[in-house]
Design goal:
By secondary structure, the protein is α+β, with helices and mostly antiparallel strands. Helix content is 47%, strand content 19%. The protein folds into 3 domains: 54 residues; 231 residues, Up-down Bundle (f41 fragment of flagellin, N-terminal domain), CATH 1.20.1330; 148 residues, no CATH class. The chain has a 5-stranded antiparallel β-sheet.
Length: 457
């Protein structure tokens, strides 16, 4: 094979350039710390790095989301704690309002303080965090509550809850529906509500209690009754005798027996007072102030059917004071209805404020009793939401730990794929440098050869 001078120069130059290129490549790897600087360095590893990098970016975004979720949940938790504190203050004021020794000015002072708690509670219900309201559901930019008239508060949000993705498979709620927290609370004792009608007596009813929830929640029970009182003043000289009846307000079924509206559960007949021995009005049972009013058949009842609604209540004071001898005129009545999710805590507080300003002793006492029962349900609703927030925060914390571990694992895997081995790179650099120097020296030697050097004159 004949090798021309130009070919010698071309081959030599190419060899030197190749060695220089390899040397620069290794220098670039050492300076950048990366083994893969372009996909062509290792196509398979480069593709894997890209894939893992996408997963890493997602995990890092979940970390950012978790931080945002934690911030919103902490704001909600703090607000709920303040709301709980306000409800406790309202409870204390309600108990104070039930003090029979309060003067008119005292009642007005309590009403004024309660109004301040009402306003503060309304402000807390409209709390926002980072420009988003906590209790407006999905409508984060809409103020959830507005007062349209004294004691009447409208809800402007919805029933949803904003969600934040904190892991590939989990979204957590960071807001709440204010209507469920403030306006759709169980009333009464949570199972039934006792309300005084337009009574003239001084009877004050307790919220009552459930003794057997299975009986109270039995199919067919419409949970709609009333306790009606009568006062017999005919036994003179002597105190009036008070009696009562338990009456169905709507058609209902108890222990498999159907009762029409207006039926006495004590007699299984239409509820009407009879005449006492002295000629005054009387219902089947004698009233004992503070004694249990049992919603079941007891000794002395003439209803032949065994019935039991599983609840009881009591009334103190004198529950009637307006009939004349032998006549019942609008007897005092207490309604007993199953609890519903319709209590508005703003209305509950406002009603107590109004009662302190306008009502007499017995109506005020009944309002206080209802307020205290309703406050218990409101506090339960707030406590439940607080517990839910705590559980969610714990979950976010758990996901944050998992995301942190995932990011670390992704970084470690990527490092193994693309980071340069400094020791190996330094060895390669030294080898490439030696190769380059050898190529340069051999090129100089070969390029200096010529036949004319061997021809003598």
């Amino acid at each position: 094979m004949r090798i021309s001078t130009s070919m010698i120069y071309s081959l030599g130059t190419t060899s030197v350039q190749n060695h220089v290129s390899e040397l620069f490549k290794i220098q670039g790897q050492i300076s950048s710390g990366k083994r893969i600087t372009t996909p062509s360095d290792d196509p398979l590893a480069a593709a894997r790095v890209l894939e893992i990098g996408q997963s890493q970016s997602a995990a890092e975004q979940f970390q950012v989301n978790g931080t945002a979720a934690t911030s919103a949940l902490q704001a909600q938790e703090g607000t709920l704690q303040q709301i709980s504190s306000i409800l406790q203050d309202v409870r204390a004021l309600a108990v104070q309002a039930g003090d029979a020794s309060l003067t008119a000015n005292d009642k007005l002072a309590v009403a004024t303080e309660l109004q301040g708690k009402y306003d503060y509670l309304l402000g807390l219900a409209n709390t926002s965090e980072n420009g988003k309201y906590l209790f407006s559901g999905f409508k984060g930019e809409t103020q959830p509550f507005s007062e349209t008239s004294p004691g009447v508060v409208s809800y402007n949000g919805d029933q949803g809850s904003r969600l934040i993705q904190v892991s590939p498979s989990r979204q957590v709620p960071v807001s709440a529906s204010g209507v469920d927290l403030f306006q759709r609370i169980k009333n009464g004792n949570g199972d039934f509500e006792v309300l005084a009608a337009s009574n003239k007596g001084t009877g004050v009813a307790t919220p009552g209690s459930v003794l057997n929830s299975t009986l109270w929640n039995a199919a067919g029970n419409t949970k709609d009754y009333k306790v009606v009182f009568a006062e017999d003043t005919s036994a003179t000289p002597g105190p009036s005798i008070y009696t009562y009846d338990i009456v169905t307000t709507s058609n209902t079924t108890i222990n498999g027996v159907a009762y029409a509206a207006g039926t006495s559960l004590l007699t299984n007949a239409a509820s009407n007072p009879t005449l006492s021995a002295t000629g005054g009005p009387a219902y089947p049972r004698t009233y004992v102030p503070g004694g249990a009013i049992s919603f079941k058949r007891v000794a002395g009842d003439t209803n032949p059917n065994p019935w039991d609604l599983g609840i009881e209540m009591s009334v103190s004071g004198t529950p009637s004071s307006n009939p004349t001898t032998g006549t019942v005129i609008t007897p005092d009545t207490f309604t007993v209805k199953g609890s519903a999710n319709n209590q508005d805590i703003f209305a509950t507080i406002h009603n107590l404020v109004a009662a302190l300003k306008t009502k007499g002793a017995a109506p005020l006492s009944n309002t206080v009793m209802n307020t205290l029962a309703n406050l218990t349900q409101a506090e339960d609703a707030v406590n439940t939401q607080t517990a839910n927030v705590g559980v969610t925060m714990k979950e976010v914390e758990s996901h944050a730990g998992a995301n942190e571990d995932a990011v670390l694992q992704y970084k470690t895997t990527i490092s193994k794929l693309e980071d340069v081995d400094i020791a190996q790179a330094a060895t390669d650099l030294a080898l490439r440098t030696t190769n380059l120097e050898a190529a340069q020296k051999s090129f100089l030697t070969v390029s200096g050869l010529s036949l004319f050097n061997f021809i003598h004159p």
